[in-house]
Write a structure and sequence with these properties.
The chain is an alpha/beta fold. The chain contains six helices and seven strands, in the order ααβαβαββαβαββ. The chain is globular, with a radius of gyration of 16 Å.
Length: 215
């Protein structure tokens, strides 16, 4: 994907708007600082044979990453529980004329029973699961999984009671500083190589790749 394509996606994405309940977002002619910081490290970490793989974008939001990565994968399944964001994702994909992205309105961990992903992306969505450790365990146990990227960081949203997610109750286990080390341990125990990339001072990108399936 060239720079012109990413700018086109950004313009359409911003035109469709962003639900303010989903956190602070400042429209930008291109992308917010977090997206710009994550974009190249994520692309550089994709497996060499990604064009032969199906990607599951878990917690796809308004479809930003599904749109940005659609031409790097054979196809993309975008799973999002929020009705408004899911509808915006559908509009984004339609307006951009993208044909290989399928939209699913569902949430974790329920949706995990029906998928057999080769690749998984969770960008700022893992921490919204009621039990994110269970989600990671289920995914790492999938025989089909070869590659997974988690872009996240310590949870700073605990007081946002207006977030329209399936898990707004206080029982949700937040991501804390240092939990990335737990995720690395889980990955290595399950037979994955894991490497951590600092994206911003409080945000990281964790790449998990099945051993003997290297790039």
């Amino acid at each position: 994907m060239n720079l012109g394509d990413t700018k086109k996606i950004a313009v359409v994405y911003n035109q469709l708007g962003h639900d303010p309940r989903q956190g602070k977002y400042i429209p930008n002619p291109q992308w917010d600082h977090y997206t710009q910081s994550l974009f190249h490290p994520l692309l550089d970490s994709l497996p060499d044979d990604s064009d032969q793989m199906s990607l599951v974008d878990l917690g796809a939001g308004a479809g930003k990453w599904s749109a940005l990565l659609h031409d790097r994968f054979k196809d993309v399944t975008a799973i999002e529980p929020n009705d408004l964001l899911s509808s915006r994702s559908t509009m984004l994909i339609k307006k951009l004329g993208i044909k290989n992205v399928c939209q699913v309105n569902d949430h974790m961990p329920r949706c995990l029973d029906s998928i057999q992903p080769a690749a998984v992306l969770m960008a700022e969505s893992l921490y919204l699961a009621a039990d994110w450790q269970e989600v990671v365990d289920i995914l790492l146990d999938k025989r089909s999984l070869k590659w997974m990227a988690i872009a996240d960081g310590p949870d700073s949203t605990l007081n946002r009671s207006t977030w329209d997610t399936p898990y707004v109750s206080g029982s949700r286990r937040p991501l804390l500083m240092g939990d990335e080390r737990m995720l690395i341990d889980k990955a290595e125990t399950a037979g994955f190589d894991a490497r951590l990339i600092d994206v911003m001072p409080d945000r990281w990108l964790l790449i998990m790749e099945k051993k003997h399936a290297h790039r």
